[in-house]
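Quick review question:
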């Protein structure tokens, strides 16, 4: 019988922490989880879920615009941001309740308060000291605030999700996942949106053909892209918030979103004092492939480890940890093939190597592409196109990467990810019968390599 209060204490009740705790409890462990904020973490409370609800709201703009082509006549639609934010808040409260019930049903003790390591087996929560054989750090991440003068005039994604007064002009700083998604959302809701970023195209690291098509689609939707813009200073003037760049350009807006990356949440956890090593440049907790930190009984999963800052990855890491320690199925998560979606408008779905990364890794590649106007757009009179690309290893015929932009790309990539994770070859896709009429059928109908 263990002399500790619990077998596991998890610090942080977000996606990774909750998944790990529930799985550990299901395997018979005595588990407590502490949380100083709302249960559910970034994904449920201030990330994926509320963002997706706002994206749905924003997409009505397309439906209203397209409807007359299909015979509908509508009055002038009106939008009220405060109503949407109220409905969104109600839904996140409902989901938080579900998370609490799930912990309860799993017999995981919820300790409300910030957890802090006292030593390798002790966590203090609200002045109480609790001991456990294992400790799991799952505290997630937070918006980064690079040293830009006046950046406090901007809101981060947390602030934007609670904004009830719609800005007429929104300036988004950064063109990563968050910047691109919110730019599309607020443009759809009727704001004039500018995205300013230091690179030449949005979404650094994504396949180049996806990036160029995204830039075209955003511009066609009325979003201004200010590339090569390195923000140095923000100031409040009578005309609005003025953002200055190193190159001497300025952009004025009513609200500014700072979407300049996220950093691991490691402050105030007593990590260094307990001997938990962190990466000096990123601040992330250093872990082995099985999520163990430099202290043998302390583990860490999710964004705080900065491996891939994605909810399903945190969940997978949390479950693998629980099964390895409290079950008899030790395993590590394979981070080499992760499908992901960017909820831009139109959305992006991607898995595996970009064409550039495949070539850089020494593969000889054959590229297959489909570039078409979706059937739905024809009667609507919408010019927007969809694009799909398969990056195939010429020698083995294995699909190394798939990159899609167009309606439902996030849904399609999930299904395709199964095949690619199983090691699908291009021949496997070729012998798959198409589902007609869909956009997804193009994935199995690409016959001619680019340039042939
Ligand atoms: P990203 O890393 O995706 O993008 C950050 C952006 O900020 C980039 O344009 C980057 O430019 C820029 N940037 C960073 N630092 C500076 C700086 N000092 N000065 C100027 N520009 C800077 O971060 P996000 O905040 O958008 O998202 C964080 C993570 O959250 C994502 O990586 C993703 O893992 C996750 N996420 C996932 C979502 C999904 O699955 N749909 C949705 C939202 C978030 P550059 O490229 O030049 O470095």
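Suggested answer, residue by residue:
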């Amino acid at each position: 019988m263990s002399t500790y209060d619990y077998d596991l204490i998890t610090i942080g009740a977000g996606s990774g922490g909750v998944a790990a705790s529930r799985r550990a409890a299901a395997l018979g462990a005595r588990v407590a989880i502490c949380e100083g904020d709302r249960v559910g973490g970034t994904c449920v409370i201030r990330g994926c879920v509320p963002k997706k609800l706002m994206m749905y709201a924003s997409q009505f703009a397309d439906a209203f615009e397209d409807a007359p082509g299909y015979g509908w006549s509508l009055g002038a639609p009106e939008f009220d941001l405060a109503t949407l934010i109220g409905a969104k808040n109600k839904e996140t409260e409902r989901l938080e309740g579900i998370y609490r019930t799930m912990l309860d049903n799993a017999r995981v003790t919820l300790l409300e308060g910030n957890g802090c390591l006292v030593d390798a087996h002790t966590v203090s929560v609200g002045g109480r000291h609790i001991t456990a054989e294992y400790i799991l750090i799952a505290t997630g991440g937070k918006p980064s605030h690079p040293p830009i003068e006046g950046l406090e005039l901007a809101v981060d994604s947390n602030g934007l999700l609670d904004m009830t007064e719609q800005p007429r002009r929104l300036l988004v700083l950064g063109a990563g996942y968050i910047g691109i998604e919110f730019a599309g959302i607020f443009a759809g809701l009727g704001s004039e949106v500018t995205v300013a970023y230091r690179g030449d195209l949005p979404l650094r690291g994504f396949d180049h053909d996806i990036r160029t098509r995204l830039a075209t689609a955003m511009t066609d939707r009325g979003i201004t892209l200010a590339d090569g813009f390195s923000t140095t200073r923000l100031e409040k003037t009578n005309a609005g918030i003025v953002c200055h760049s190193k190159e001497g350009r300025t952009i004025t807006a009513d609200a500014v979103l700072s979407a300049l990356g996220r950093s691991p949440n490691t402050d105030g956890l007593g990590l260094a004092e307990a001997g938990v090593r962190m990466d000096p440049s990123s601040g992330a907790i250093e872990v082995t492939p099985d999520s163990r930190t430099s202290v043998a009984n302390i583990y860490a999963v999710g964004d705080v480890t900065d491996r891939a800052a994605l909810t399903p990855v945190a969940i997978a890491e949390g479950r693998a940890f629980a099964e390895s320690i409290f079950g008899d199925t030790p395993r590590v998560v394979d981070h080499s093939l992760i499908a992901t979606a960017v909820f831009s408008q139109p959305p992006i779905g991607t898995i595996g190597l970009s064409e550039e990364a495949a070539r850089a890794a020494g593969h000889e590649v054959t590229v297959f592409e489909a570039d078409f106007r979706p059937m739905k757009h024809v009667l609507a009179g919408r010019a927007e196109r969809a694009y799909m690309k398969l990056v195939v290893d010429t020698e083995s015929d294995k699909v190394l990467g798939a990159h899609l932009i167009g309606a439902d790309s996030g849904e399609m990539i999930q299904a395709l990810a199964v095949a690619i994770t199983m090691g699908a070859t291009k021949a496997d896709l070729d012998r798959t019968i198409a589902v007609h009429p869909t956009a997804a059928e193009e994935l199995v109908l690409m016959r001619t390599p680019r340039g042939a």
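Why it works: The chain has a mean pLDDT of 97. The pocket of NDP is lined by residues 146, 174-179, 181, 197-199, 204, 259-262, 309-310, 340-343 (CB under 6 Å).
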